[in-house]
User: Fold this.
Amino acid sequence: MKRIFVLCLCLLCVITSFGQNVSERLATAFNQFLSDAQLKQAMASLYVADAASGAMVFARNEQFGLAPASTQKVLTSVTAYSLLGRDFRYQTHFGLLTNGGSAQLFILPSGDPTLGSWRWPNNSEGAVLKRLAAAVGKTGTGKLGPLLIYNKGWGEEAIPNGWIWEDVGNYFGAGAFPLNWRENQYDLFLRSGNAIGTPATIVGSEPKLYDLTINSRVSAAEKGSGDQTLIYLPVLSREGVIRGTIPAGEQRFKVSGAMPNPVHQFAESLKAELGASVSPDAPALLLEEKGTQAGILHTEVSPSMDSIVYWLNQKSINLYAEALVKTMAQQGGKPAATEAGIDLIKQFWKTKGIAETELNIQDGSGLSPQNRVTTKAQTTVLLYAKKQPWYQGLYQSLPTYNGMKMKSGTIGGVKGFTGYHTSKAGITYAFSFLVNNYNGTSSALVQKMYKVLDELK
Assistant:
């Protein structure tokens, strides 16, 4: 027994010594990082904790509120797991409303951001439309009138406060509606001339856009210059413009935008699938009340929370985060609005020891540059998640960068990483690393941030 006690004591000393060495190495690396010219006018914060004990390993500027960019999606993911549950699935109901001799398709949306998404074959646009057409066909009804969309309880604003104009028309700036369709995204295809400065023209779109026109003000730039375009399109507008440059000599260059009216796009896509079953030019109508004679004839069920969170973090899909924020509010008995969801998130984490002032947030995705969170708060969220039965789902959703499982975040002047790493010594760390207002290139800064995080290896 004495020998075992001595061995355990030695092991404890080694682990303690190793932890101290990690803290010292992080301090040295972080100080060197702060002295870099890229950080001359910047603010940087790093918080590292032992994921098993929760003990702080290293902290610097951990109480400063910084813009988190997309690292904020970890906060939204963990809260959604906690409040909605691992088994949560969205359900979109379709029913038939009869009024005398006429019939109308009635839709009870749920805010499902995956409806018609190409990421799941069974959930794709074509698969959903075919199932719905088959369900309508079995009823034997004649021509359908306008589609009726029940949107009671949903806030009018699809776009959260704080999103900037340059983002809203592009695929990553898609708003969260009661009825979302194909991730509220479309792809434009452009052809550019061989000479720099010549106009680039739009040669197609996927899917076909209904009642929406995009005008090109794009020109050709040097080869290899990539996508330097922005689409400007206000919500519910019928006309927009794409500006910027694409490489010269392209025949079918893809640029993705956000649908300003996914309800109309869905309605027109369904009409095209049903053909003569729908009255010509029948629009979709938004209703505050549901008809009492509606009988549900078909229900679309979304993938599980694990699957939604996986794609949310792997591909940093802003729409998924914003839809989850509104869904948490609705499931909590509040209006399905961003503000209500944010309040719910703050109150939940307040019960876990995170002050509301540490989560000064405007959205669920981190796209708003007005968001401010602390690295200590983000790490506290990770420590909480580590002890939950759904932890593996969250862990698997995190991308791998620099050999570490962590969510990245990038907006103008902001770079961040938050996640987990298990060292060669078998110690798992939870960490959050945020930098605001750096100068120079993001790629150069990232390598310097990796160098600091390498001390956890």
User: Anything to note?
Assistant: The longest helix spans residues 2-34. Residues 167 and 173 are 5 Å apart (CA to CA). The first strand starts at residue 43 and ends at 50.
